[in-house]
Amino acid sequence: MRVAMLAPISWRVPPRHYGPWELVVSLLTEGLVERGVDVTLFATADSVTAARLDAVCPSPLNDDLSLDPKVWESLHIANAFEKAGSFDLIHNHFDFLPLTYSNLVDTTLVTTIHGFSSDRIRPVYRRYDGRSHYISISNADRDPSLHYVATIHHGIDLSEFTPRERTGRGLVFLGRIHPDKGVAEAIAVARAVGLPLVIAGIIQDREYFAGEIAPHVDGERVRYVGPLGPRDRDELLGSALALLHLVRFAEPFGLSMIEAMACGTPVIALRRGSVPEVVDEGITGFVVDDLRGAIAAVPRARGLDRRAIRARAAERFSRDRMVDDYLRVYEQVLSGAHVA
Description:
alpha/beta
C-alpha cells in the first residue's frame, strides 16, 4: 500500500510544542511505517520522520512569518496532488482546501476532519461529500449533512507519558490561551478551591490573555509557563491533581485530556462536544455542567485510582489502536467495501 500523508504546514511534523493536527499526523505516519506501509509525508522541510519526506515549504508558517500562507499552502497541496498517480491513497489532514483538487485525480482520498473552524467552510465539505471518504475524530463533531466512513479517536504514544501513582497538589490547564478553551474559568475554579494553577500553551488571543489571564498570574497561585515540549508536558501533567478542561465551545476531541490520563491524572471537563466520549465518568475524571460542578469535582478527583486512569487511557487511546483503525479504513475503502 502506497500512502501520501498530507500534513498541515502551520507547524513542523512532529511539532516542537503546539500543533495537535501535526502531532496526530506524526503518530499515524510513524505507526504506519512500523507496520511496513510505504508512506510519503508531505510536510514542512524541517519535519522529522521515518517515512519518505516530500517538502516544498521550507519551514512552518507560524515559525517564519515572511512566508505567505496562501502561496505556500497552494504549492504544498499542489505538490501532493501532482504526484497522486504514485499513490494508492492520499490521506488529507489539511482541512477543506485539498478537497478542491480531488476531482482532478483518480487516487482514493481519505480526509480526517479535525473539526470545523467555522460554518463558512462547510460548503466545501458538502460539495465533495462522496468524493472523499470522511473520518470524524469524535461522534460529537459529525456534521449531520455529511457522510462518514468512520469515527476514529486520536491516539498517543504512551511511552512519552510517565504514569504516576501519587496524587499531585495543584491543578493544570494545557491548551491554547483563547476564550473558547476556558482559561479564565480554570483560574476561577482554582481560586475557589484554594489550589495553585499552572497554565501552559500558546497565546492565541493576546487581548484575552492581557485582560483576563495576565492580571491573575502572580508566579505562585497562578503561573504561566508558555508552550511546552514533550518532556516538560509529561512532567506538568503527571505532577497535577487534575487537568481542568472547562471549554466554552463544542470540543472536537481534546488531546490534552488523553495526555493527562496517560499520566494517571484525572480530567475535570465541561460537557461540551466530545468531552463525554473521551472522559469515562468516575473513572478517568468527571464531566460537569458548570463551574459549580467543577469546583465540587476537585476534591473527588483525589479519590480516583491513577493506575486505573492510565490503564483506561492505554486501552482506549493508544497510538497502536489509532493505527489499527486507520489501516482498517484504508483497506476497506481501497477494496470498495462499505465501512461501518
